[in-house]
């Protein structure tokens, strides 16, 4: 099943029609995997080809998508909500995010690595873990390299 087929099925199962704005918003998120768009960023892309679709429609569409599990909403403390596709069949648990506190870039860590911790929690707290969200805050490699270069330049002078 393609992402688009899954998307259509989720809409259908929840009793919603495939409208132009829903298809357009879905396609932007689907074709930009690994990006975490805010509604405003989606709007900027949408309006190029579809100036008739307003920001309020984007908000409403994303809210619906979130409700019926098409997208997942992430908050990164940068003041805006960001969205990514929710399905990802080969991924039992959610990937982790690396948030750069200098440039704001968000990278994904595709491996779970939490199995040992999950096992301990499940045993000790008799709690079944279905998923998790994990964010690491720090400085990305680009920003680190930029800083190194600055230091070098100041010591060379
Ligand atoms: Zn896990
Ligand atoms: Zn950075
Ligand atoms: Zn992500």
TrEMBL record:
Protein family according to the UniProt entry: Belongs to the Fur family.
Keywords, sorted A to Z: DNA-binding, Iron, Metal-binding, Repressor, Transcription, Transcription regulation, Zinc
Name recorded for this polypeptide: Fur family transcriptional regulator, ferric uptake regulator
Residues binding Zn(2+), per UniProt: 100, 103, 140, 143
PANTHER family reported for this sequence: FERRIC UPTAKE REGULATION PROTEIN, ZINC UPTAKE REGULATION PROTEIN
GO aspect biological process, one term: negative regulation of DNA-templated transcription
Cofactor note: Binds 1 Mn(2+) or Fe(2+) ion per subunit.
Record Pfam families: FUR (PF01475)
Cofactor(s) in the UniProt record: Mn(2+); Fe(2+); Zn(2+)
GO MF annotation terms: DNA-binding transcription factor activity; transcription cis-regulatory region binding; zinc ion binding
Residues where Fe cation binds: 132
């Amino acid at each position: 099943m393609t992402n688009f087929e899954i998307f259509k099925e989720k809409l259908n199962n929840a009793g919603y029609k495939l409208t132009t704005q829903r298809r357009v918003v879905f396609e932007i998120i689907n074709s930009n995997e690994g990006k975490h768009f805010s509604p405003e960023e989606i709007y900027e892309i949408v309006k190029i080809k579809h100036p008739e679709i307003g920001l309020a429609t984007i908000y409403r569409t994303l809210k619906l998508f979130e409700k019926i599990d098409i997208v997942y909403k992430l908050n990164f403390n940068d003041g805006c909500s960001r969205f990514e596709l929710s399905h990802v069949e080969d991924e039992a648990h959610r990937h982790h995010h690396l948030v750069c506190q200098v440039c704001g870039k968000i990278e994904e860590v595709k491996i779970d690595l939490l199995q040992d911790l999950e096992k301990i929690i499940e045993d000790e707290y008799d709690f079944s873990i279905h998923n998790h969200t994990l964010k690491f805050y720090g400085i990305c490699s680009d920003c680190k390299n930029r800083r190194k270069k600055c230091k070098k330049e100041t010591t060379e002078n």
